[in-house]
Structures are given as C-alpha cells and as structure tokens.
Automatic annotation (TrEMBL):
The lineage of its organism: Bacteria, Thermotogati, Synergistota, Synergistia, Synergistales. Its EC number is 3.2.2.-. This is Putative endonuclease III-like protein. GO terms for biological process: base-excision repair. Belongs to the Nth/MutY family. It comes from Acetomicrobium mobile (strain ATCC BAA-54 / DSM 13181 / JCM 12221 / NGA) (Anaerobaculum mobile).
DNA sequence: AGCCAGGCTACCG
DNA sequence: CGGTAGCATGGC
C-alpha cells in the first residue's frame, strides 16, 4: 500500500483501460455496457506482446467496419479479420484468438466467466484472463505483466524466477480486495515501469534509486 | 540496423 | 516439469 500511495501521489490516477480510443482517469465505472466490455476483451488479446499504439490502429480498423462485437467477429472472413488487426502484429494467431473469445463471449449472455473458463480459451493465458476479469468484468484479480514483474524483482519483493501466480499472490495477499485499487495500482506500475524499467533501462540501479526518491515524496 | 513492445502456444530436453 | 522458439508489425 505504501508503494501504491507513493505512485498515486506522484503520477495521479491513470485511467486504464482505454475504451473508445481514450482513457478515463478516476472513472472506475468503465465499461458501462456489454459493447465496451467486449472492446476491452479484444484489446486484451491484441495487446499481447504489442505496443498499445499498434493496438489502437487495429481497434480503429475493427470499429470502422463495425466489427467490435462478437457476432461480427465470427462472421468476418479470415482475410478481412486479419487485415483489420494487421497493425497489432501476430495477426494469424490473434485472428484465431479473437474468434475464440468472441465465441465464449457470445455464449455467456452477460454472465461473468470464471477464471478457469477464460484460461481454457486458446489465446487466453494468465495475464489476459486477469485483464479481462479486472477491467471488463470488474472482478478483483490483480494483473501481473512484464513491467510489474520487473518492478517487483528490482525492489526485492520477489525472486527473479518467480512465476505468474506467485507474483499475483504477493500483491493480492498484501492489499485489500478492491477492484478500483487493483485497476489503478496496475496502471501506475505500468506508467512507472515505462519510464524507468523499459528498453535499455530495465533493471538498472538508476531506476531503483529513482523509485526510492518517488517513495520519499 | 536492431532492439523492443501491456503474451501465448507448442514443443523441446 | 521448466525453459524457449516462433509469431509480425510499427516505433524509436
């Protein structure tokens, strides 16, 4: 919580997840309907190992052909679907993944899927499942991504070889079970990591020092 | 030019 | 099982 407070004070509310092309700082009511929830799910798949700026283009392409809903995704030809998501990379795999999640979503009829259910979908692993549950369904599942792992290991909170569930457990067992907190915390970790733990700066001692300085504010 | 990006699956030993 | 090649485009 001390780390969270320091990050929040320093960076302010981040407003993940971006929906309809923009962020929504401080608004934890997003998504406000099924369409927005599905857009988050599509974004969660498209952003796998991919910069969000590239995902935005793919989402915009899908929006333009009115394909940001499960039925349309399932109805599109492979060629059209692939060319729409092309900017987000890995389009052959991701086209398959999108159809898989569209099929699941359509079958839910508004029900919230279990974590196990999501994980059984091809293309949905730990992080994607948690992102979907936390941001699309407002469930208290802490999301661990590469940035979060870098920060946690750099701070000595976790071993270098720590697995996904281990890290998830670390955060969840030390925080109140609160959706808004989980959403904001993850967003703040990403923002901080982008500044100090990405590219050549990753795991540098300078990043660690900068973090401590932020903490002391 | 070459490394990196908000991972996952399949396959290797 | 733990570890990793392959997947593809765009930004810097």
């Amino acid at each position: 919580m001390a780390i969270y407070e320091a990050l929040l004070k320093h960076y302010g509310p981040q407003g993940w997840w971006p929906v309809a092309g923009s962020y929504h700082p401080g608004d934890y009511g997003v998504p406000k309907n099924e369409e927005e929830a599905f857009e988050i799910i599509v974004g969660a798949v498209l952003t796998q190992n991919t910069a969000w700026t590239s995902v935005e283009r793919a989402l915009e392409n899908l929006r333009r052909i009115e394909a940001l809903n499960p039925c349309k995704i399932l109805a599109l030809s492979w060629d059209v679907l692939k060319s729409a998501i092309r900017p987000a990379g890995f389009f052959n795999q991701k086209a398959i993944y999108l159809r898989e999640v569209a099929l699941l979503f359509a079958g839910l009829k508004g029900r919230t899927p279990s974590r196990k259910e999501l994980m059984s979908v091809k293309g949905v692993g730990n992080e994607t499942a948690d992102s979907i549950l936390l941001y699309a369904y407002k469930r208290p599942e802490f999301v661990i991504d590469a940035y979060t792992k870098r920060i946690a290991t750099a701070l000595g909170l976790a071993a270098r070889g720590a697995g996904y569930m281990e890290l998830k457990d670390l955060f969840e067992s030390n925080l109140p079970r609160d959706v808004a907190l989980y959403q904001e915390y993850h967003a703040l970790l990403v923002e901080h990591a982008k500044r100090f733990y990405s590219g050549k700066a990753r795991e540098s001692s300078g990043a660690f020092v900068d973090f401590l300085r932020d903490l002391s504010y």
